[in-house]
Every structure is written in C-alpha cells, then in structure tokens.
Write a structure and sequence with these properties.
Alpha-Beta Plaits; nine-stranded mixed sheet; N-utilizing Substance Protein B Homolog, Chain A; about 475 residues; alpha/beta; 4 domains; four-stranded antiparallel sheet; binds S-adenosylmethionine
Length: about 475
C-alpha cells in the first residue's frame, strides 16, 4: 500500500479497535474528508480492512503468540493496528517481509511524526518472529471448539451457541463456508421479473443476460433450482455494479436464501400481504414480481432511512401495489376492530431483525457483534413482534417467519415458545420447498410437528452455508385453520 492509503487504513483500523460499533465503510466514507479518497485507493483500503476484520481473532491470536517472546510494556491501539496489518499482509496476502519493511519506511518518510525509534525496532523484530509462526504448535492441546473459533475466525460465542444443535464438524464446515475460499465464492444475481413474465420469458432473458455478462468477461453459473437466479464470482461483483444491466435495474444482488423466503411465501395474485419488517425491500419487490404485481403489500419498517431506501428501490424496480408505512412492528398501527372473524391478511411475512449469524460471508463485521446481549435484544424484538401479529392472524392467514441466523434461539425456540400458546394451537404447519434441510430437533413436540409428512419438510426448515452454499437461514410457515391440528 502507498503511504497515504496505509496511513488511512491504520487510522480506520485503530478507530474500529477502539469503538467497533461504527462500520468500516461509514468510517471510510467520511464526506468531510479532504482530499477525497480516489476510488481505487478507497477500494484497496476497504478490501484490506474487511480482510483484517474478517480474520480478526485469528490475527490477534497470531499477534499475541508472536509478541510473547518479545519484551513489551504496553501497546497503543495504533500500534496494535500496525501489528495486525503486518500479520494480515504476511500470512494472508503473502507479502514478503522486506516488502512490508519498505511499506513502513515509506510511511515514515511521508509521515515523519509517526516515527517512534524504539517501536520501529520492535516492529522489525516482530516481523522476523512472524516468519517462524507455526499453527501446529500454536493450536496444540487446545479443545476442538477453541480451535474452530480461532482457525475459522468466528467468536467463541458462535461456536458455543451451535454446540447443542450441531456437531463440531458441522459447526466448523459452516464457519468455513462463511469465509472466502481462494476467490472461489459466488454471489447470486436475481433477474428482475417483468410484469408479464412467463417461463419462456425467464429462460430467454436469462440466456440474453448471460451472453451479455460473458462478453464482459464475467463467469456465470445458472442456479440449479431457481430459473431467475444467476451466480457470479464474488470477485467480479464490482464489474456487475458498473454494468449497464445492473445500472438499469434489470438485475440485482440477492442471496438465494432470501429468494427462497419469497418462494416459501408463495404469493398469489390478489392476495393482501403484510410485510412487517420490509426494508430495504428486497423481498417485497420479489414477492410483487412473483405475482405479476397483482398482490397488494402493506409493508413497513421502524427505520425511516431504511424505509426511504425501500421507497427508492420500489421506484427503481417499478414495483407496484406496495404501500409503505413507518412503524414499530411490535405496535402495528393497523385497526382490526369489528373484523375479528374476517380474514384481513392472506399472508404475513416477518423477516425479523436478528443477529445475522448466517451472513458472515457477506458481512464480516457481523462476526464481532455476536454476543449474548445482542442475541437477547434480537430475541426480545422477535418475541414482541410475533406476539403483536397474533391479532392479525385470522382463519386462513399464513404466517411466514424467517431469520438469517443459525442460532436456535432465533428460530426453533421462538416457534417452540409459540406452540405452547393457546392461539397457536390453530396454526397448521405448511410445506416449505424442495432442497430445504430439517430444522434443529430441539424437542419431541417440535420434531413431531415438523416431520409429520414423510420426507417433505413442513412447518420449519433451515438452509446452511456449508450445505446449500447460501447464507444461513431459518424458515417457518404456519396457516391458521379452524380445527386444531394438535388435538
Ligand atoms: C432482516 S431485515 C429485513 C429485510 C427485508 N425484509 C428485505 O428483504 O429487504 C430486518 C428489518 O427489521 C427492521 N426492524 C427492526 N426492528 C423493527 C421493529 N421493531 N419494527 C419494524 N421493523 C423493525 C430493521 O430496520 C430491518 O430493516
């Protein structure tokens, strides 16, 4: 990295280490910054910062082990940043030691006030020691769960939460699948469906778009289940964002897990659908496209800014029949009086706020936001909204509850809590779609409910980064029926 970029990178990393609640991108996107950071430098800094944050606990582990042999009193946040940058550069980017030394020499020439002779001497010793680091020795005698946490760079909290529902081998596989692997990761692009689309339109449009992408040197893979999804290598994302096809809103990025959620909603023309937490509107728009814009969605979100983004997306994609309201989903401002026996909504989608523990591939910063307080906060919001929805669920209404989390607390446990409530006795589990894995088997009642139809996953299901190569997602689908299925 050039001195200016390196200085900026270290400055942002230091800020993040001191106060991680503020995202890397927003730190880098400081509009008051003068001179403005050129686009190439911006991308280079962001790429390295995201790389360091993705592997943070692993980098910290290597750093601390290496420092053990050096005599140190105390280290400032800026100095930690320099060490982390060196570890990342040498071990992840395979940058040779002499090259890294030169980067720091240039940095000091450009920013002489950064020079602290004693620290610089230590940095050189550190680089020397770093070349001898051995994983075999460092991880020797550590329990498997700790090894997974360090080696796959996930918080130990993540591993601990999954141990009751998954083998350690599967936990490791899922954590690994949420880290990039030798530039071989793909991301999904959704073809925006035309109002009058049919199977032929989808196939022809897809083939046309694929040809266009190939001409631009972008590799593609057709999704094996969903005809309007195309997968492209993650490292070609920028080329897509710059393409005319993307700029004219004919394709958008959307993970397969989110598309599956919409297919599980199975929206039909003329249905009235409540989308409780709609922003930024990715699922809202697809639901409307699937019904040829003939369903009606009442959607909302608590965050004004995100709701504005939703309005913008609806306008860009020309999505019709969507009515957006800013609301708190746990206190919905929709009246129900006088209609207690009458069906109000055909479908209710709660794509709930959650820890995002299934989304580390896309959003590495999420890793270090995982802790028991965040989980509790999200569980409480989910519970409050689900409780509120009760009064909108009439005979025939289908509730679809989804989260992009791998934790059972935000999936199976939420449904399990509802199953014991009198009103939920009339909720009948519904078939999900092909290719979904069973939900975690947390107790007999839930297991009996979800496996009551041979091989067909009904009621509750999951998809996993290691199995379906998507974000980790939980799905639940229940319809209220007059006769209780559990009696
Ligand atoms: C998982 S995201 C929804 C994604 C959206 N369905 C989509 O596909 O684009 C969860 C959303 O819940 C919103 N949210 C959080 N707490 C809420 C509340 N109490 N009431 C309404 N929305 C809330 C967040 O602002 C966030 O936009």
């Amino acid at each position: 990295m050039k001195p200016y970029a390196l200085n900026k990178c270290l400055e942002i990393l230091t800020g993040y280490l001191e106060y991680p609640n503020y995202s890397l991108e927003s730190r880098l996107h400081n509009r008051d910054e003068k001179p403005f950071i050129p686009q190439n430098t911006y991308s280079e800094i962001l790429k390295d910062l995201r790389g360091i944050i993705r592997w943070l606990n692993k980098i910290q582990f290597v750093t601390k082990k290496t420092l053990r042999t050096l005599n140190l009193a105390s280290i400032t946040s800026l100095q930690w940043s320099e060490l982390y940058y060196c570890v990342y550069s040498m071990h992840w980017k395979q940058i040779p030691r002499h090259y890294l030394r030169k980067e720091f020499d240039d940095l000091h020439t450009t920013f002489p006030d950064r020079i602290i002779p004693a620290w610089n001497a230590l940095l050189l010793q550190f680089l020397e020691k770093l070349t001898h680091f051995s994983w075999e020795i460092a991880l020797k005698n550590k329990p498997l769960s700790e090894k997974i946490s360090i080696y796959q760079a996930v918080p130990s909290f993540f591993v601990e939460r999954l141990i009751p529902v998954m083998s350690e081998v599967k936990i490791e596989a899922n954590a690994k699948a949420m880290n990039p692997f030798k530039d071989q990761n793909f991301i999904a692009l959704r073809i925006v469906l035309d109002e009058g689309h049919d199977e032929k339109w989808v196939t022809e449009t897809r083939d046309k778009y694929i040809q266009y992408l190939h001409k631009k040197g972008i590799k593609t893979k057709i999704d094996s289940d969903i005809p309007f999804l195309i997968h492209i290598p993650m490292n070609q994302r920028k080329q897509i964002s710059n393409s005319q096809l993307y700029k004219s809103n004919q394709i958008i990025f959307q993970d397969k897990s989110a598309v599956i959620a919409c297919l599980i909603v199975d929206p039909q023309p003329l249905e009235l659908i409540l989308d409780v937490t709609a922003a930024p509107g990715m699922k809202t728009s697809l639901i409307q496209e699937l019904t040829h814009y003939q369903s009606v969605i009442i959607g909302g979100d608590i965050h004004r800014k995100r709701l504005k983004e939703t309005e913008k997306l609806m306008s860009q994609l020309k999505t019709k029949n969507v009515h957006l309201i800013q609301w708190d989903g746990s206190k919905l401002p929709l009246r129900t009086e006088g209609k207690s026996k009458q069906q109000i909504f055909d479908k209710i989608l709660l794509d709930a706020p959650c820890t995002g523990s299934g989304t580390f591939l896309k959003d590495p910063e999420m890793k270090w936001q995982q802790n028991k307080h965040i989980l509790l906060k999200n569980r409480i919001i989910q519970e409050k909204i689900l409780k509120q929805l009760k009064k909108y669920i009439q005979e025939g209404t289908t509730l679809i509850y989804t989260t992009c989390s791998l934790y059972p607390e935000e999936g199976e446990y939420q449904i399990n809590r509802l199953i014991n409530k009198p009103w939920f006795k009339e909720m009948m589990p519904q078939p999900l779609i092909k290719g979904i894995s069973p939900a975690y088997s947390i107790n007999k009642l839930l297991t009996a409910l979800i496996t009551s139809q041979e091989k067909n996953i009904i009621g509750l299901g999951r998809i996993f980064p290691a199995k379906q190569h998507t974000q980790g997602f939980f799905y639940a689908k229940f319809t209220r029926c007059l006769v209780s299925p559990h009696e």
